[in-house]
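explain this.
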Amino acid sequence: MASINITPATIQIAENGGLFIKRSTVRLPDDDGGEQEIDSVVIGEDNSDFFITYLIGKEGLSLFSYPAYIADMPGIIATSVELRTLVARLVKELIKAS
């Protein structure tokens, strides 16, 4: 699995822009009719529909869900630097939209 960390710098960028970023889990159906928990990274804004989820996998972070009004979301994030760059871009877009 690619080593992707939510660094203190990434957290600070998110918080400065009114966002949060954290690890979480997503429950998905498995092949046996049950559920499986998959680790994820969530970027969001409190009390808003702005909520992006990336699933943690062997190749890095794979885009799972995001609001339709956010364009050009990367499908795979392979490094911590790419994650930080995405968070900074999202903060800029949200500031510009407000």
